[in-house]
Amino acid sequence: MRNRMNQRQECRLTVGTLTDAMRAQSLLSASAIRSEIVGADGVRERREGCGYALTFSCLQEGQVRRILREAGLRRF
Amino acid sequence: MIYLDHAATSFPKPREVLSEMTRCMRFYGGNPGRGSHSLSLAAAEKVYACRRAVAELVGSRHPERLAFTLNATSAINTVVKGLLRTGDHVLISDMEHNAVLRPVARLAREGRITYTVFPTMLLEEGRSPARITARLARLVRPNTRMLICAHASNVCSASLPLEVLGEFCRKRGILFVVDAAQSLGHLPIDVEEMKIDALCAPGHKGLLGPQGSGFFLLGEGVEAETLIEGGSGYHSLEEEMPAEMPERYEAGTLPTPAIAGLLAGIGEVRRMGIDAIHAHECRLIAHLARRLSYLPEVTLYAPQYQGSVLSFGIAGRSAEEVGLALNRMGFCVRAGFHCSALGHRTLGTDATGTVRVSVGYCTTEAQIDALADAAQRLCRRT
Predict the structure, then answer these.
(1) Is residue A75 part of a domain?
(2) Is the ipTM of this complex over 0.90?
(3) pLDDT at residue number A8
(4) Distance (Å) from the C-alpha of residue B65 to the closest C-alpha of chain A?
(5) Which of B35, B52, B247 shows the shortest C-beta gap to A17?
(6) Shortest Cα distance, chain A CAs vs residue B58, angstroms
């Protein structure tokens, strides 16, 4: 899992496939966690993932990791 | 025209399907997964929503294991050629469409596999799931790797007991592949309960989507080789297709407008209810069978089965002649062999073909009566 925190306390996960990103967003939404799919930031993130990233509030990072892990989304 | 060829493709499509396709092409027609701009993401969201809708409809918890294809035939080809290995033996039913027979026969011709056609006992007295599997058991070999069957025939209304066949295959470690071209949207399917390893279906028939939409859904742990390779939208610097589903099997641009239309079609199927659609179609086909049975010149083929399809013939006239005559009288029906050499052999109609009437969600009893009246007029002319 790769994440970075920017100045606005927004965490960012590089995603393996866009479908996984959609699935993750849907799972998080079901747990009332707001997330957004955004374009990859930089060449490295683009090479390691699918060209997209998932962003969400860092305050919910632990919960996000748990939900995605339990759903078998291990590619994050 | 009265359209009675829903087994070929459903028509007309619901208004909602047309509206959604138009909306797609006007407002969110980006290329899904090919850029991080908002229209690409909007298209990708719609594609994912359709994956979810299909997965939910067939009882799968894994929308990511659903890959879109052009139609059921391309789905079946990917599954068959992607899963089978040299030396494998395959079982296919005696009512298969050429979409199953031809890819399997080609692999056999090339000496890569062998296959056996198993009897579905369509016309036999005392047909039962237990008797079908008893016969099937005698055909299994140590190298039998896959069983492929149509859920429902496209020549008559017979269907196969998927729960029983799924259990049969799971117990023996045989991959269970189902062609749901004639059943999805007409009959309930649950891939978990039925132990289906690969489900192949079109979007443009019972699901009321547009032509150009189809898919296959692979069970957990079922991994097929790719049939075509190309751009996947990511890992662009690598020579290999990505390992992950569904992108692994979706080389090139997806038909987003067709997928958006399919999503709307599924919405309509859910709104009407599969059980209600099935009951409606069974009632119409039973009514047609009853009307035609009063005509001594008419032969009905396997009318004992309930469903959305009825095949018949008129003495002294070829199937094609009857089909053309009915077309001139304002009806769209299918005449001939319906791309099913095996099905016709099983029904005993491989020399003559049949006239096939197939109904759908929007067919009315008045339309069926009009067809029966037309058939009666044709009989008087023979």
Answers:
(1) no
(2) no
(3) 59
(4) 10
(5) B247
(6) 18
